[in-house]
Amino acid sequence: MNNQKNTLVFSFLLFLFLCVFFKSLGLWLNINLSHDDLYFRLAFVIVALFMFQSLGDKKSKITVSLFFAILVFLSFWINSFLLDVSFDGNWYQKEAILQMAKGWNPYLSPALNPADAPSASQWINYYGKGTWLFGSLIYNIFGRIELGKAYNLILIFAVYFVTVSCLQMVLKTRKNLSWIIALFCALSPVAIYQMFTYFVDGQMASLIACVFLFLFLVFKTESRISYLGLVASVVMLINTKATGLVYGVVALGGATVFSFLFRREIFKNIFKASILIGIVGVIMGYNPYITSLQRYGSPFYPFSSGYSFSGVTPPGALIYDHLPEKYKPMNRFQKLAHSLFSASGFAEEPHLKIPFTIEKGEAGRFWNNDFRYGGFGPLFSGALILSLGLFIYLGQKLSRREASILVYFPVSVIIFSTLLNPEACWARYAPQVYLLAPYALILALFYFPKGKIFAAILGVLLMINCEAILENNLRYEIGLSSGLDKILYNLRGKSIIVDFGIFRALRVRLDEYGIKYTEVTGTKDRGVQGGTRLGYEMTIFEKIP
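Structure (tokenized):
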């Protein structure tokens, strides 16, 4: 059984990594887009070979391979029904996928022309391409833009099984208990409310969890799978978002220092893994990091340029315009502290609340996927208080070496990486903060002599927190997707007039439903009345305005 879990640990991550890597390599070699289905099949074949080589008896090979295939299929199937209704997803994320599917090559082509992607080209040119590589590959094969969102769910499965492996194989946790704790690790709040969108922060949450979990396995088992999982997860993290590069470097730097201080025998292997990550990361992340460095003198452009949407902002604060007014004069420490102990929200001005409580209507706000404050859930502030209290307690009770290894070092890496981001108050920009709570739960079970009651309280808080987010988000996603599907289905075969606003990527939704359309622009600015709004700024008219 251990061998089966150990195989599943890496299979989900390996499949995604290979799809993105082969797509990236194909673009570098300027291979025709018609070969995308080959990359997909090749990724599946390699994963299957990996499973058959790792597993012993025939029954295990068939069972594990079938289980993997079913979960991957379910990830695609579920996303075929649930439409992405997010702002960013329908603005520039899908547009990037469509441009790549149409032939734009981020490695060999010039920067995307604004005329080809109005209002979206600057973000497509400068943001990480990992998710879009996968999305364009899937779109080219199946012709369904929504299927690429399966990336999120497959990553959640990856986190779940690597957590189960850590708990059962290394920490010897009882089977039922490990399955429950693994859910808390995999169902990060940010991962939950972005699960069915092209937002990439939920992916960041899952990949950061994978990095820490594989590092744990590296130090405990030194297995080949652990090192391969570490390399794959960090490379994917780097190519998801600019903050992924920062967080990946911090995690690897921390692991290198840790191995030098406490595990000299694996220091060399950690260093070799870091070199390999650097090489593969540069190949896959040439755009945007190297291209931005060449064009603008910084791999983090436009974050390093002082750009803002309104043009008035402190240097480097890209999202300053979207911060609550209360947060604009605050420093990063004040904003983070206030956000962590605020009622969850995204539109109103933030306000502090009593920890361990849920305000009226607070849980219902988690239909949204972009929280400005309190973004880790209505009960996370209480879970955080318990977690920090446990860290302080164990720091005093454990030996100096044990406290350094189990508490000070891992917690410091999470906190340090968080504080490097000046806008960590926005939960999706620093999703690693959530890991403090499930990590405290694990420590309470294994290193706190009287920790069962403490662990039960913390576990219940996390369970209610996750359930509240998941229930409200799913209800909204299912309801809105069902409503949009009915509207679009009734428009099939008809000709309509439409103004997409900045959401021009929504044209693919009309194409997939077989809806003919004539596009007009500027109706909002001209104050044209009589249209039917269908998702953000996409407006349908009966006659040309």
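The mean pLDDT is 91. Strands lie at 495-499, 516-519, 532-533, 539-541.
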